[in-house]
Each structure stands twice: as structure tokens, then as C-alpha cells.
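User: C-alpha cells for this one?
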Amino acid sequence: MAAAGGAEAGGAVSALRPRLAALGRRLAAPRGAGGDDIFLAKGSATLDKLRDICNEGREHPSTLLQLYTQAVLDITYFEENQLVDEDFPEESSLQKVKELICILSEPEDLVMECNINAEPISILGAELLECLYWRKGALLYMYCHTAKERSEWLQENIAIFKKCLNDGVHYLMKMFSFRCPLQLNEDVSLQDKDTARLLSEGIFSDTHLLAMMYSGEMCYWGLRHCGEGKQECLEMIDSVSNSDLGCRSESVSLDFRETGKNMLTKYVAVCEGPLKGQGWNTTTAKQMLCYFVKSHK
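Assistant:
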């Protein structure tokens, strides 16, 4: 067993080294441009720690891959913030979004590449996986939020826009698949009922609730700008977007109306139920729900 564990660790180290070098180059780029950020500092410290551990070659692969994932999250967060601050430059931001999504997909790819006989969730854990999918979905949300206001670009690139929405919603919905929602039963004590209701809907944090709102809003943009989304030739969309969107692109086309209705209905029910009075606004969500219903008549 020890030999098998050593082989797994060695495989993880071999797969990690080129990725650590690539992250180091990304880390150096913003610093060379005067970038200074707490997340860069955290990412740099984690990379240094990882390099030391890799040289020792003693840690379990799960420790290595979790540290790598944290470094990816920290370093890419700085780059995402740069894109937001620059208002997603029209000429270059789509390529940058693609790069970041590919990097955020690397931890799961790495688990598979290391031939560890385990699923990503047992190596990385639910919280890290949820964070990776949240970051991919939220990045596409922010990109689409900006892109939809560029009417000329939107008209010329509607298939790419739809694919960005489709992938973004898939990523956000995937967040809800890593933990089992609480099964409500009579043993739940009275004072815990609000919390139990949230957990039964798969809402373990504010981020899960935001993911519901973001995915519903993206479905609303999809319906407004792309129409009913009659399963138009996915091959055509894929051929356009694979060169532009790239990594982990989802091939299943969503029903924007039904998906949006489901997510926003849950969002409103939770905000006006167990989270009533906690500062969550449902006005926009209700307006979008009305649109889903009225535009279907």
C-alpha cells in the first residue's frame, strides 16, 4: 500500500510541475505590470509551499491537489478582477475568459491525469469544487452582463453569446450537485426549521443563493436575446464557440424558459421564506418570472 501511495504522489508531482511553472508565469505577469494584490500574495505563498512539498515528494496527492486548486483560485481571481475593472475589453476579453475557464478546469483534469482511483470530490472536497464551478459560472455571468450591452457585437456573435450563457448556467447549476440536500423530517427542531429549509434546497451559503439568481438572470438574457432557443444546430454553435470558448464547453442546450423559471421560483421562495428580512431583494427576480410567463403566451 505504501508503494502504491508513493507512486500516486510521484504521479501527482510529475503532473503538477509544468502546471506550477505555468501558474508562476501568470503570477509574474501582473506583478511586472505593477500588480499588487492580497490574492496574488496568497497564490505566490501557496506556489512556494507546493514547490517545496513537490521536492520532498512525501505528501498525499490530495494535499498537493488541494493546494494547487487554492493557488489557481487565488491567482485567477486577480485576473478576473482586472477584466471587470477594464469592463471586459471587446477585442480581447473572450479569449481571456476562455483561458481562465480552462485554468479553473485544471484541478479536475489533474485528478484524472494522475490516475488516482478516486472521484474529484473525494480528492478536492465539495467546497473547492463548488468554488471552481461558481467562479466559472460567475465569470461568464459578468462577461455576458457586459456583452449584452454591445448591440453590434451581439448581433454578429449571437451563437457565441448563447453558448456563453448555456455554459455559465450549467456551471452554476453544477454547484448544487456536490452536496446532498438535507432531507426534511419530523426530527428537525422548531428553531432549526429555517436553516433546514435552506439546506433542503441545497443552499449551504450565500453563494449558492447568488448562483440561483445568476443562472435565472442568464436564462432571461438568453430568452430575450436568443429567442426560444429552438435546439438550433448545436454542431454549428459548438464549431463557432469551441474555437472561442474552448475548455469544458457544455454540449447540452438548455431550455432557458423552464430552467430560468425553476431557479428564480426557488430563489424567490427562499428569500421570502426562511430568509425574509435578511436583505435579499426579489423585485428583479419577480419581473423576470413575469417575462418568462407572459412571453410564453
